[in-house]
């Protein structure tokens, strides 16, 4: 964390010096294009995590070439007597991009550390739904092509089972952290209980598990086993909605929709038959 503060401080000081360079040295007259482009370089480098994967040399080349093109388009002098100024501005862009890359890498390390604390480390954890969706879709196509059975489960965690009794603000923070912790434990147990060829993805606060070669009649026993295992090992109650191909749905989207709808319906049914809800209805009657 100290290193992160240090990097941010260096970037701020560098930008401060850049915007005051004309006061420090009268012969230097930075163009308006540079004044606009330099903070844009810093912002893009820090705000776009994917840029961390691009080689630094390629990033600098793209930034500098873009700067030269923009400077040419706005009819600002680039070559001739303005060449020393252009070189100076290009160097400023390069230094800014490198410093911003350091800050971005520090942010990435901090995010990974938080993930390790709140989500934990496991050999096999569900991918985000946006990543696992394509693989799930391929499995549905394969099942349709080979006329094979296939099932999809939507698994959500009961909010009441992970409530933390703390003061309002502290409870909210603790709730988020504990929720992530519980979800990581649920994910770990799902990965341990389901087969290697099953595909598990996380979508918001629930999981989607695609189960190739699983027939509809097998779902009840499998759901009961997951209920029991997660309740015993994690201490939370899960809702499980299911959908089978091709008896209940024919497309991947319809499988997801039906499984999630059934999972949510279980929560509504539990609420409608809860003792508190029945007591309110009795009182109203």
Notable traits:
Alpha-Beta Plaits, 2 domains, five-stranded mixed beta sheet, 285 residues, alpha+beta, elongated, single chain
Structural topology:
Elements: H1 2-19, H2 21-24, H3 32-47, H4 56-73, H5 83-118, E1 127-128, H6 129-146, E2 150-157, H7 168-193, E3 199-203, E4 206-212, H8 216-233, E5 238-245, H9 252-272, H10 275-284
Parallel strand pairs: 1-3
Antiparallel strand pairs: 2-4, 2-5, 3-4
Helix pairs in contact: 1-5, 3-4, 3-5, 4-5, 7-8
Could you describe the 3D structure shown?
By secondary structure, the protein is of the alpha+beta class. It has two domains: 117 residues, no CATH class; 158 residues, Reverse transcriptase/Diguanylate cyclase domain (Alpha-Beta Plaits, 2-Layer Sandwich), CATH 3.30.70. It contains ten helices and five strands; from the N terminus they run H-H-H-H-H-E-H-E-H-E-E-H-E-H-H. The chain has a five-stranded mixed sheet with strand order 1-3-4-2-5, with helices on both faces. The protein is elongated and about 80 Å long. The termini are far apart. The C terminus is likely disordered.
- CATH homologous superfamily of the largest domain? Reverse transcriptase/Diguanylate cyclase domain
- Quantity of strands, as a count: 5
Order of helices and strands: HHHHHEHEHEEHEHH
| Poorly predicted ranges | 119-123, 273-285
Estimated structural class: alpha+beta
Q: So what's the overall shape?
A: elongated
- The CATH first-level class of the largest domain comes to Alpha Beta
Q: Portion of residues in helices?
A: 55-70%
Radius of gyration from the alpha-carbon trace, in angstroms: 28 Å
């Amino acid at each position: 964390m100290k290193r992160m503060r240090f990097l941010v401080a260096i970037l701020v000081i560098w930008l401060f010096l850049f915007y005051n360079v004309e006061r420090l040295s009268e012969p230097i007259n930075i163009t308006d294009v540079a004044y606009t482009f330099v903070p844009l370089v810093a912002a893009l480098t820090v705000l776009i995590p994917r840029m961390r994967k691009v080689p630094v040399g390629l990033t600098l080349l793209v930034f500098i070439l873009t700067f030269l093109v923009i400077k040419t388009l706005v009819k600002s002098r680039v070559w001739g007597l303005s060449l020393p100024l252009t070189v100076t501005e290009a160097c400023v862009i390069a230094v800014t991009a490198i410093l911003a890359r350091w800050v971005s890498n520090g942010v990435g390390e901090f995010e990974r550390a938080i993930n390790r604390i709140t989500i934990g480390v496991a050999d096999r954890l569900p991918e985000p739904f946006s990543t696992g969706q394509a693989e799930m879709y391929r499995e549905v196509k394969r099942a349709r092509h080979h006329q094979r059975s296939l099932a999809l489960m939507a698994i959500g965690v009961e909010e009441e089972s992970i409530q933390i009794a703390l003061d309002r603000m502290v409870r909210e923070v603790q709730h988020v952290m504990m929720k992530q912790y519980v979800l990581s434990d649920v994910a770990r147990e799902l990965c341990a209980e389901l087969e290697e060829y099953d595909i598990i993805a996380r979508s918001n606060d629930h999981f989607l598990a695609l189960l190739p070669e699983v027939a509809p009649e097998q779902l009840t026993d499998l759901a009961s086993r997951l209920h029991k295992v997660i309740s015993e090992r994690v201490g939370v109650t899960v809702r499980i909605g299911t959908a089978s191909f091709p008896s209940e749905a024919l497309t991947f989207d319809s499988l997801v929709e039906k499984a999630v709808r059934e999972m949510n319906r279980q929560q509504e049914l539990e609420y409608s038959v809860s003792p508190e809800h029945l007591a309110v209805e009795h009182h109203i009657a």
